[in-house]
Amino acid sequence: MFNKLKEKLTGFKESLTNRILEKAAGSIPIIDNKSETAAAHQPAQQVAKPASPELSVKAPSENRSAAAQVPQAGTVHEAVRPPKISLVDKAKSLILEREVIIDERDLEEPLWGLEMALLESDVALPVAEEIVSSVKSSLVGSKKKIGSDTGDLVESALRAALLKVLSKNVFDFDEFIKNTPKPVKILFVGVNGTGKTTSIAKVARYLKERGYSVVLAAGDTFRAGAIEQLETHGQRLDLKVIKHKTGGDPAAVIFDAIEYAKAHKKDVVLADTAGRLHTNINLMDQMKKIVRVTKPDMLIFVDEAIAGNDAVERARLFNESVPITGTILTKTDADAKGGSAISIAHVTGKPIIFLGVGQDYPDLVKFDPVWLVDRLLGE
Questions:
Q1: How buried is residue 83: exposed, middle or buried, by Cβ count under 10 Å (0-12/13-18/19+)?
Q2: Under CATH, to which class is 3-29+88-166 assigned?
Q3: Among 12, 34, 201, 250, fewest CB within 10 Å belongs to which?
Q4: How far is CA 288 from CA 41, 284, 297, 318, in A?
Q5: Whole-number Å distance between alpha carbons of 312 and 341
Q6: In 106-115, which positions are buried (b, 16+ CB within 10 angstroms) versus exposed (e)?
Q7: Binding site residues, as ranges?
Q8: What are phi and psi of 145, to 5 degrees?
Q9: Does the pTM of the predicted model rise above 0.70?
Q10: Contact, 98 vs 27, CB < 8 A?
């Protein structure tokens, strides 16, 4: 998931970390390795030579006593000598303890690279600019030690910037369902082939596992295959499906499903609709009629994460026609770029509610900014 974007964010962290380290290293005095080597080979002190062979001759017992007092190479006396610390090692320790002040010039090139990386990953321009601005304001003027936490410094700034963007429109789906008068009416909209009907089935299972009773409404009356697909999901999940004939009025189908839910004390109605492009005026007018007649409590836009900026733009235009409550992004497990997941809530002003991460019913993740940022940063 989001492999390309993860690679680009990792590249930014490494680039800025290296820039800070280079700045710190540039302020350390240059060490003369030749002088250090020469000094290391100078004798600690001069050893006096014996005056003559005759004067050095002693009795055997005296010679043994003197030899016992002189440490031999490889003995414990030599092993316990304190290790010598070189000037280079001392300089390295100074670098690790030094503080550096980060200024705009240090960030200019890495931040430009970050913005390009975000745009190449389908992050919308205003979102990319906000992330870059947030990272910049977090780092400029800060004083940091150049030890092993330098990479953590850069990652913390990037993490905070991503969380700031992703946390602007957080929505608790479970609390909404719990506190909304029953039946809760949820309408699903979007373009063709984005996994809308499968997402309805996943949400139905999600609700059923939490103790809610669910009714499905086959509001996509344009395609016989859509009605059959929803019926198949209903059979697998043991849920009631309300349907009309192909070509019927979708608003009437959804209205009947709501009335059935009221009469049988069901908790939630999940209504499918035909896929449509925002450019199709007639179908968008029909969507407005469905909204007027059924008065949904939630209107969820469904699109593919792999559509990138197209998904973001479609969500924006749908929101202008029939204001959405939030978004489900499908196929995020196949999305290498990740830009739509970062951008869509910011651009529409409406939250991401769920992420589809596979084809099976359990492959639905309730959106959590921390969960997503952890994956973007490779954790």
A1: exposed
A2: mainly alpha
A3: 34
A4: 89, 6, 14, 11
A5: 9
A6: bbeebbeebb
A7: 190-197, 272-276, 330-333
A8: -75, 155
A9: yes
A10: yes
Q: Are the CB atoms for 88 and 31 separated by under 8 Å?
A: yes
Binding annotation for GTP: 190-197, 272-276, 330-333
Residue 123, token pair as written in the block: 């992050």
How distant, in Å, are the alpha carbons of 43, 71, 271, 328, 368 from that of 177?
83, 84, 15, 16, 17
For 121, the token pair is 């990953």
What is the rounded distance in angstroms from the CA atom of residue 365 to the CA atom of residue 363? 7
pLDDT in tens, the chain (379 residues): 677 777 878 888 788 777 777 776 665 444 444 444 444 445 544 444 444 444 344 444 444 444 444 445 444 444 455 455 455 554 554 555 556 677 788 788 888 988 998 998 888 898 999 999 998 888 876 555 555 455 677 788 888 999 988 888 888 999 999 999 999 999 999 888 888 999 999 999 999 999 999 999 999 888 778 899 999 999 999 999 999 988 888 999 999 999 999 999 999 999 999 877 766 677 788 888 899 999 999 999 999 888 888 888 888 888 888 889 999 999 888 876 778 888 888 888 889 999 999 889 999 999 999 988 888 887 5
Q: Is CATH 3.30.930.10 the classification given to domain 173-376?
A: no
